[in-house]
Design a protein that fits this description.
There is one protein chain. The chain has 17 helices and eight strands. The protein is α+β, with helices and mostly antiparallel strands. A six-stranded mixed β-sheet has the order 1-2-5-4-3-8, covered by helices on one side. Strands 6-7 form a two-stranded antiparallel ribbon. A hairpin with an 8-residue loop joins strand 6 and strand 7. The radius of gyration is 24 Å and the shape is globular. About 20% of the residues are buried. This is Transposase.
């Protein structure tokens, strides 16, 4: 394989990247990669700083909102903003408490650290560096800390044959209500349990787990930043309506939807979502027959040069392999549909949010 790469002719005039130098080059590529990682953290800090400059009066926001849940979530978010400005320890000017934890979690994901090793590392660092008492000292605490940013996911057990989810009224079942397949990897555990519900002391390993990422916090982020909140209104306030098809807003389906649901279309900030799904090989090997499916939401409010960019995609579900769900895709879409139907309307999601630069409280709808 190495000989093939060394003798490969680089098609530079056809726009091909220099894969050989980037893969087998000197240590400069590693240094550049590290610098790129650092710059990404700086961008994240700048994003949080952008939020911080626009929300300084939490009491005013709390008075304008009647729902306790958004206020609590907002306060938790502002605690993170405060951590982004807090020194890791007294006298540390180079990195904040928030940046330090994000960097460690990024390294854990990138290099495949196990949870136990991450917890041990935090304990060693806590003995070596004068952290505050509120600093996470285990992977579990660090994960919960990051959940305040909406980065957490809900793990839901699924039937091995994709017939049902152990979710909702089936959450405590130990076998599939449709095909009877055991929930656990070892069928002996299910045979020894006479009850059809899950024992609280049971620590069995499920056959299949899929992940659900709540998309409502992601929509809130879009209106909590001055730049993105402006772009989310582009389709009504800034687009050029010259009769040409440049964006989904110019399409017949969009206009027909607006005529049918005039209450929805009257508010510019209401969100239009597109849903897409496709499979990919998590190992990057064509010889491995494994397919993981992701369900992605696309906010069509954004202009065409933004809505189809990867950073603006909202991953809602990750369906595990090794095979594709095929006709059972609707089973895995159930948590997403339930999230869309929070208040009982098919295509409405009600939630409170803040829009910068003015502190306001509004009701947001999502249309599919």
């Amino acid at each position: 394989m190495n000989e093939m790469i060394r003798t490969y002719k680089w098609w530079s005039y056809h726009g091909e990247d220099n894969y050989i130098n980037s893969t087998f080059g000197s240590n400069s590529s590693i240094i550049a990669e590290d610098e790129h990682e650092i710059s990404e953290h700086d961008d994240m800090h700048a994003m949080l700083d952008d939020f911080n400059t626009r929300y300084n009066n939490m009491n005013e926001f709390a008075e304008q909102c009647n729902d306790d849940n958004p206020n609590k979530a907002a306060r938790n978010f502002f605690d993170l903003l405060n951590d982004a400005e807090t020194e890791l320890y007294p006298g540390c000017k180079k990195i904040s408490k928030f940046q330090f934890l994000v960097t460690l979690l990024t390294l854990k994901t990138y290099y495949g650290w196990i949870d136990r090793s991450f917890t041990k590392l935090l304990k060693v660092l806590k003995r070596s560096i004068p952290f505050s008492e509120t600093h996470p000292c285990s992977f579990y605490e660090a994960e919960n800390y990051m959940h305040e940013l909406g980065m957490g996911c809900k793990k839901i057990d699924a039937c091995l044959n994709d017939y049902s989810l152990y979710y909702g009224k089936f959450a405590d079942y130990v076998s599939c209500p449709t095909c009877g397949t055991s929930r656990w990897q070892s069928s002996k555990d299910a045979d020894n349990i006479k009850s059809t519900t899950l024992s609280k002391k049971s620590k069995n390993i499920p056959n299949k787990i899929f992940r659900h990422f709540h998309f409502i916090p992601r929509l809130q982020w879009l209106y909590m930043c001055f730049r993105t909140s402006k772009e989310m209104r582009w389709h009504k306030e800034q687009r050029c309506d010259d009769g040409k098809l440049r964006h989904s807003v110019d399409a017949f389906a969009w206009k027909s939807f607006d005529r049918k649901h005039q209450e929805f279309s009257s508010e510019t900030r209401n969100v239009r979502l597109g849903l897409a799904s496709d499979g990919f090989n998590p190992f990057g090997l064509m010889c491995t027959n494994n397919s993981v499916w992701s369900v992605v939401l696309v906010p069509y409010n954004l202009p065409p040069w933004m809505c189809m960019k990867t950073p603006n995609f909202i991953i809602s579900l990750i369906i595990p392999g090794p095979g594709q769900p095929e006709n059972d895709m609707d089973v895995y879409l159930q948590p997403l549909i339930d999230e869309l139907n929070i208040y009982g309307k098919l295509w409405f999601v009600h939630m409170m949010l803040m829009e910068s630069p003015i502190l306001i409280c509004m009701l947001l709808y999502c249309g599919q």
